[in-house]
Amino acid sequence: MTYGDLYEQESCTDFLDWVSDQKSGVFREFLQECDNRIVLFNNKTSDKEKQEGQLMKLLNIVKTLKLQNCRYADEHYFTGKTNRDYLTVQAQKDFIEKEAMEGANFINETLKILLGSRGSDRDILLFNDMLNKANHLQKFIKDKDKGTGVLGSVSHYVSSIISSIENELQIYNRITEEKDKFKLKVKLEAAENSLKLQKIREEYEHKIKKDKRLEALKMEKLQDQIKRMEDLKQSWRREMNNLERKHSIERSASNQQYQLLAKQFDEIKSLYEKQSRKERKKNIFTKMFQKSK
Question: Which CATH number characterizes residue 119's domain?
Fold first, then answer.
C-alpha cells in the first residue's frame, strides 16, 4: 500500500496496529482476501534503511505466497481493482475536490458576470469558452473518480454549471434566430414598401406630366384670350382715337361757326350802337329779313 509518507505525517499509530483496528468495511474485506498481507510503502523517503526494510517486507510476503502455492494472479488484481480505485480516490478526495472546486468557482463567478452584462457577441464567445472549461473540468473529475462515485458531489456541481451555460447559449441562439428572422422580415417589407413607393412615385410623376400638359393648354388658352383682349383694346383705342378726331373736327367746325356768329353779332352790335334806335331796328329787321331769305 502506497502513500506511507502521508500516513506518517497524519497518524502517530503504528501502521499494523491501525490495520488491526479496521474491523469492518471494504478495507477490512480487502485485507481478509489478502490474508492480512500488507506492506506500507513510503515512496518519497530518502532513508536507505527504510527503503530496504520496505522491500524486504514485500519479498518476505512473496516468499510466503510461494510456499503456500497461492500466488497473486492478474485475475486477483482486477477483482480488487474497484476497491483499490475507491480507496485511492478516497485518499485523494480532498485534494481533487479542492482543485476541482477552485476551477468550478472560477467558472461560476465568470458566469455571474456574463449574466449581468449579456448581449454582445464577445459575451457569447466567453460563454463558449466557459463551457469548454467546464467540460474539461468535468472530464478531469470523471478521470480522477474512476467510476467510484467518490467525487459525485463536485461532479454534480460542475454538471449544474454546464447545464446553466448550455441554457444560456440556447437562449442566445433562439434570440439570435428570432432577430435574424425579424431582420429578414424587415428587409422583405422594406423591399416591398420600396416597390410600392416607386410605383406611387411613377404614378405621381405621370400625373404631374399630365397636369403639366393640361396646365400648358390652359396657359395657351389664357394667352390666346389675353391676346384677343389686347387686340380688342387696340381696336377700342383706334375707335376712340377716331371718335376723338371726329369730335375734334366737329368742335373745330362748331368753334369756327360760333366765332363767325360772334363776329356777325359784334358787327350788328356795332351798327346798332351807331344808328338810332329806329334806324337800328329798321336795319336789323331788314338784315334779318334778308338773311332769312
Answer: 1.10.132
Cell representation of residue 83 = 476497491
| CA–CA dist 124, 115 (Å, integer) | 10
pLDDT: which is higher, 255 or 178: 178
Q: Residue 289 falls within a domain, yes or no?
A: no
pLDDT tens digit string along 171-180? Answer: 888 888 888 8
Q: Give Cα 181 distance to the centre of its chain.
A: 13
Nearest to 36 by CA among 21, 51, 54: 21
Q: How far apart are CA 202 and CA 271, in angstroms?
A: 100
Report how far residue 93's alpha carbon sits from residue 98's, in angstroms, rounded to the nearest whole number: 8
What's the CA gap between 117 and 137, in Å, rounded? 25
Total domain count, the chain? 2
- The model carries a pTM of 0.44
Per-residue pLDDT tens digits for 106-155: 988 888 888 777 555 557 888 889 899 999 999 999 999 988 888 899 99
Q: Does 24 fall in a domain?
A: yes
DSSP for 8-24 reads HHH--S-HHHHHHH--S
Q: Which residues contact 104 (CB under 8 A, 6 or more apart)?
A: 134, 137, 154, 157, 158, 161
